[in-house]
Structure formats: C-alpha cells, structure tokens
Amino acid sequence: MKSFFAVKIGRTDCANLITAFLYLFIYRYIHTSFLVPVWGYFGYYNNTYTVYEVSVTNLIALFPILFYSVKKVASNFISVMIYALVYLPTVITIQYHFTDYLSVIGYQFAYMCAMILFFLVDKFSNKKVVNKTNTLSLNFWLFSGVALALFVLFHYGPGALKLVSFEEVYDLRNENYELKGNSFMIGYFVLWIGRVFLPLYMAIGLVYRKRSFIIIAVLMALLVYMAIGAKTTISAPVFACGIFLCLKYIGFRYFFPFIVVAFLGVMIWYEIAKVMGCEDTTIIFPISALLLMRTLGISGLLGASYIDFFRTAEHTYYSHIGIVNYITGAYPFGHDALGKAVWSAYKGFDIEESMNANANFLVTDGVAAAGIYGVIFISIVFFFFLKYLNKVSARHNPDFVFIILLGVVSALLNVSLFTTLISCGFFLILILFRFSTIKYK
C-alpha cells in the first residue's frame, strides 16, 4: 500500500505539505519569541494584526508548496532552500512589519508568483546535455582551487591571517582591509575558493569517499575565515556534511522536513537553555544567532526593510550592477554599496558606521531594482538560469551536484543574482557541469 505521506496533493506530497503547514507556525513562534525579543533593536516588529491579515498571509505562504514536485533535480534543491530560508520568512515578516498591510500585500503576491515559478522549473527541464568529450578535466578544477588558495595564503601572509571569534570578525575585516587594501582579483579569488572550490572538494570527499578532499576543503574554509572573517564559509563543511547525510539516509523527498526539524531543534534547545537561565552562553547564543537570526530571520528583516525604504526612495533600475551603472551612471547612491546606503538611510546611521546590509537576490534585483515589477522580472530571469542548470547538471550524480551548489545557494541568500553569477562563481559551476566529467568508482 502506498504510504500516506507519499500521496500526491497538487505536485507535492503530504509529507511536504504538512511540513510547510507546521513550518508556518514554527517560524511565527521563532519570530515572536526569539527574533523580536532578542533582536528587536535590529528592526524586527510584532505590530498589531487582524485575523484577515494572518489568514491571507498563511494562504500565500503555503500555496507555492503545492507546486513542489519533490523531483531530485538541481532546481528543486535550490528552490526548496529559497522557500524555507527566503520566501516563507519574508512573507510572514512583511505581515508583522507593516501596520498598513494593504500597501504591501502586492509584494506577498509577487513573491508567491516567483516561488511557484521556481517550483515549476523541473516541469520544463526534460532535456540534458550529453557531452561525449571531457573538455575540462577534473584535475583542471582541483589544481585551480589549490592554486588560488596558495595565492591567497601568500597574499595575506601569517601577519594578517587570524583565527578569531565570531564577535571579532568585523575587526578582522577592517584590519585586513587597512593592511592589504581592496585588491580586485584577490576579492574574486577568495569568493571563488569559498563558493566554488570548497564545495567541489567537499562534494568529491563526501559522495566519492575521498577523505583527503574533505581535509583540503576544511583548510580552505579556515583560510577564507582567517582572511576575511566569513562566518558562512567556516561553517560550510558542517552544513555540507549534514545535507549529505540527509540525502543519503533520509532521501531528497524528506529534505524540506529535515530543514524544518533542524531549525525546530535549535529553537527548542534555545528555549530549554532560557528556562535554565543559560541562553547567553558562548555556545548556545552564537549558534542560535547564526542559525535562527543570521540564516533564517535575516531574509525577512531585510525584505521588509527594503520594501519600506523603497516606498519613497528612488529605485536602482539595475544600476547597482557595475556594467549597467558604467553605461548609464544612474546609480542613486553614489559610491556607497547598496546595502550600506539603504541601511544607513533607513536606520539613520552615519554611512561610515553602518553595516552593509546586503540582501538576497529577490530583494536586491527585485525590490531595490524596480519594486513589485522587479521581483517579477528577476524571477523570470532566474527561472531560465534554473532551467539551464537542470540541463547541464542532469548527467552528474545528484548528491554531488547539490553539495557543489551550496555556495551558490549561500550567495543567492545574501547578494544579487548577477553578483552570484560572476563574483561568487556561479558561472564557473555551470562551466564545470557542462564541460567536465566526474569519474570515481
């Protein structure tokens, strides 16, 4: 007899529909019981709301999951991560953030259309690229990664590379910026190591059981962290191992429930620690901050903040992309980065003291670029990127593909799609899938 949890509802199954329903209430609890009380000074709000607003928001949050087919392809892996870490938190946070709900409901519908489109990519991805010749050998990629790591190692040297706590990473970044400057190519090399080559080594090490590759990936993570204090990079090997174990022993069908249970576990751990009066310890607080605020809650906060800011501010109309601004000169914030300019103006900080609140691609290339129309436009563009990704990755081991794509997912959660494509090396990964063959027994 077919399992109840495998019964199809729309394009998804009961397991993922029930998980989405539970996740809705789990995230609402995280928002009201953790994000607002602990991080409220950042801008998390719990404004008065009506039954109508909650009901409409819940329907919008749940509806796209009906289009999630659970098919084990690259687009679904990225899309379900976007649903869990960007879409649902943003849709719910908007409802809590604004007292004038009707003025932002259009954004919720735009996000819903975008999410449905992402989940439908696999329906239009039936062909795969058959490359009979191995144009770029695997050794080319492996040696390139090591070469870049050695170059970065010698560039910074022992004087600049420091292993610091999470609280000290911003001091490390400022010190190394003053010591080494802002070298154009070094910036690319560091990002490519963390977003492309580290996941590549982890993928080979985990999927094809090559322990030496995992060691090299861990060393790369340490190098990037000691150079620029990238917190997501230092934790990347741990996330890669967790996702690989989920894919191997639980299966992709239950990947979304695995994500939700992981966040629920951290929240329960924090609540138990709070009852015991030890939630501020050096272990519990940084982990809960990294996973519940920095990984999960930040997308909703920045989405709501950017929407609020650009209701009156001038949109960028994609002039935040370097080449577009070079041609048009239309970027409205001078020489300041988009995240820093928006956050300083929105929060009333001095530009020099403000953090760079860089946001996910739906915010940067959507909300900031052209409002609701920008969200729709960038969603269509991303749809075709996902469609091509499915095509070129179809001939590779899916688990291998998913681990490599972790760097891309991390970038999409934090920066523009175009920054992800070039600066974070998404184009390199597309080239690898298209022109290289991974041959291990």
TrEMBL record:
<feature type="transmembrane region" description="Helical">
    <location>
        <begin position="400"/>
        <end position="433"/>
    </location>
</feature>
<feature type="transmembrane region" description="Helical">
    <location>
        <begin position="77"/>
        <end position="98"/>
    </location>
</feature>
<feature type="transmembrane region" description="Helical">
    <location>
        <begin position="215"/>
        <end position="245"/>
    </location>
</feature>
<feature type="transmembrane region" description="Helical">
    <location>
        <begin position="50"/>
        <end position="70"/>
    </location>
</feature>
<feature type="transmembrane region" description="Helical">
    <location>
        <begin position="104"/>
        <end position="124"/>
    </location>
</feature>
<keyword id="KW-0472">Membrane</keyword>
<feature type="transmembrane region" description="Helical">
    <location>
        <begin position="367"/>
        <end position="388"/>
    </location>
</feature>
<protein>
    <submittedName>
        <fullName>Uncharacterized protein</fullName>
    </submittedName>
</protein>
<feature type="transmembrane region" description="Helical">
    <location>
        <begin position="282"/>
        <end position="307"/>
    </location>
</feature>
<feature type="transmembrane region" description="Helical">
    <location>
        <begin position="185"/>
        <end position="208"/>
    </location>
</feature>
<keyword id="KW-1133">Transmembrane helix</keyword>
<keyword id="KW-0812">Transmembrane</keyword>
<feature type="transmembrane region" description="Helical">
    <location>
        <begin position="136"/>
        <end position="156"/>
    </location>
</feature>
<feature type="transmembrane region" description="Helical">
    <location>
        <begin position="251"/>
        <end position="270"/>
    </location>
</feature>
